[in-house]
Amino acid sequence: MFSIFSYQFMLMAFGIGALFAVASSLLSPYIVLSQQSMLADGLAHSAFLGFTIGVLMINQPVYLAMIIGVISSVLITLLIKKTKLQADSAIGVVSAVAFALGLVIISLTPGLNISIEGLMTGSILTASTSDLIIVSIITLLIGAFVLVFYRDLYQIVFDATNTKISKRKVAFLQYLLAAFAAVLIVIGVKLVGALLISSFIIFPTVIAKQYKRSFRSTLLIGVGISLASTFIGIYCSYYLDIPSAPTIVLFNALILLVSILIRYTKTRRTK
Asked: How much is the pTM?
């Protein structure tokens, strides 16, 4: 049972998976409760353009993909704030244009070596030391951001119209939140794939909400659930010889189903 921990690449996967789980679950409530659940999916498609240009220009396309992701997230936030577009419409517009540009670049560049399948599915088991460093830095930054601006972010999410924060600070925090989400999602595309990244953002809050606790409890429950499903998913995927990211998502889905059943049972007993 414990032979898995004797392999360096598995320890790397567990470490990066834990950090990514914490970072994504810390951002999850602010994204999901702001009615922007599909932001991760949209930015994952936008990151495709960054990876495409990055392969053409530099050896480390993930850094250029982060820049494109941040620009896309800022554009989405700008469209939501300055126009009458709903969040899902703004996300769809920006992600569709970015993804289309990436496909056009690939079609106009013969011999471009980029694996679309690899970007769609990711692979946390092939993560490198540089990935660990990047995920560690972004997790620390996100943790500090949430800790310092916890009350302000709470007011923005739940009482945006009557918030006592200045408009400039509200805009600054919204753009900063979008930028952090973009960087994390770009890293997630490389690790878990564009097809599954949104689930890592959505599941922690959706599951935690089933227990109807305070916002702080929802945040902590989401972190705990995300860590547990990540560890169990990676562990089981190794012995079952199946991809890690889909296994983690399936465990999240199972936890959500159990949580819904628990809430339903409690509600029936109360009635």
From this structure: 0.82
CB 29, CB 222: distance < 8 Å:
yes
130, two tokens: 């540089």
Q: In this structure, which amino acid lies at residue 29?
A: P
Q: What's the CA gap between 126 and 156, in Å, rounded?
A: 38
Angle at 99 (CA atoms; ends 113, 188), nearest 5 degrees: 75
Tokens 């011999």 identify what position? Answer: 111
Q: How far apart are CA 71 and CA 142, in angstroms?
A: 18
Q: How far is CA 209 from CA 26, 152, 200, 222, 256, in A?
A: 14, 21, 15, 9, 10
Which one-letter DSSP state was computed for residue 59? S
Domains along the chain with CATH numbers: 3-195 (1.10.3470.10)
Residue 134, burial from CB neighbour count under 10 angstroms (0-12, 13-18, 19+)? buried
pLDDT per position as a tens digit, 60-95: 677 788 888 888 888 888 888 787 778 778 888 888
CA torsion, points 153, 155, 160, 166, in degrees to nearest 10? -80
